[in-house]
Every structure is written in C-alpha cells, then in structure tokens.
Task: inverse folding
C-alpha cells in the first residue's frame, strides 16, 4: 500500500501503467507459489520419513522448474508487451510505454523472487518461520521503502522500480544463504 502511494505521486498515467503490470505480474507469481507449496509438502514428507538426502534435490528441482516457468512467462510478456497491454489499456494510451519500461526494469527480478519463495517454503516445512519472516520484513520494508523513498528525489519513478529489484536480490541472497547455512535443519518440526 505504501509503495502504491509512492507510485500514485507519479501521476495517473504511471499509476495506470503500474496497476496493469501489477495485475500481470500476479500471474507470473502464481507458478512460484504453486511450486513452493509442492516443494514444501515434499520436503515435509521427506523430513518426516527422515530422508534428508532427498531434501536438497527436491528444493533445487523446484527452483529449476520455477526459474524456467517464470523466465518463459516474463519473456512472453516482454516480447508481446503491447498486445497484452492492449487488453487492459486503450490503443495509444500514454501508459503503454511506461508499463513496458516498468516491466523491462522489474520483470526479470521475479525469477529471483521465485527462488526466494521456493527456498523459503522449503525451510518453513521444518518449522523455520522466524528467519523467513525477518527476511521478508527487511526486504519488503527496509530495502524496498529505503530505496523507493530514499532515492526518489534523485531518480524519480525509476527509484521505485529499482527498489523492487534491490528487494528481490536481497531476499534471494538472504533466503538462499539461510537455506545453505543449514541451521533450519536443526529445528524440531511442530
């Protein structure tokens, strides 16, 4: 909501462009959530069966599947941007080039966000919820707001778009780092 407020300050055309892209990106995120849920269930089953040897394979297979699906969706959105945007906006709308620019800046970061989702769902399968929550708060609030607000006066709307990328990179690095650290494996599932 706060980021939308920041976007709204850019005017009605940018708000419309961001609104359309936000709607389209919700479809891009669906596979990550579905794959994350499947990974979580399989990881939990294998933890319950004391088959830790399978957990890493499940997680990285999920990451690979998610990267592939997200890349295909973002590539399709990038290559067919104008026809897709014409489903939501009138021909000749000033919001179309803005939406295309926003997608060019932010779109590919959804691959990193998807990796974070899958890895986070995997560690949560063993009851590790505090670290993923803290990572989410840090990236969604600290990084995104910090860059979006902090650099807005200098870079305008592009600071908002780059804030999403910075949050995705930070979230991916911290999530994968926490997974690789392995401390989540020592928790006792509920």
Result:
């Amino acid at each position: 909501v706060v980021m939308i407020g920041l976007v709204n300050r850019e005017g009605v055309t940018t708000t419309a462009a961001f609104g359309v892209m936000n709607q389209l990106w919700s479809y891009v995120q669906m596979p990550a959530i579905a794959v994350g849920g499947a990974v979580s269930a399989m990881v939990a089953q294998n933890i319950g069966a004391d088959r830790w040897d399978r957990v890493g394979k499940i997680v990285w297979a999920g990451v690979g599947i998610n990267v592939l699906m997200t890349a295909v969706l973002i590539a399709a959105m990038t290559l067919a941007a104008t026809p897709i945007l014409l489903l939501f906006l009138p021909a000749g709308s000033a919001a179309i080039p803005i939406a295309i620019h926003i997608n060019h800046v932010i779109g590919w970061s959804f691959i990193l966000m998807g990796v974070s989702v899958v890895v986070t769902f995997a560690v949560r399968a063993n009851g590790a919820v505090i670290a993923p929550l803290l990572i989410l708060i840090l990236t969604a609030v600290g990084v995104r707001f910090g860059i979006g607000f902090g650099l807005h006066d200098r870079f305008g709307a592009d600071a908002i778009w780059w804030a999403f990328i910075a949050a995705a990179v930070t979230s991916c690095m911290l999530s994968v780092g926490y997974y690789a650290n392995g401390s989540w494996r020592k928790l006792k599932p509920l």
Summary: The chain has a mean pLDDT of 94. The chain is about 80% helix and 0% strand.
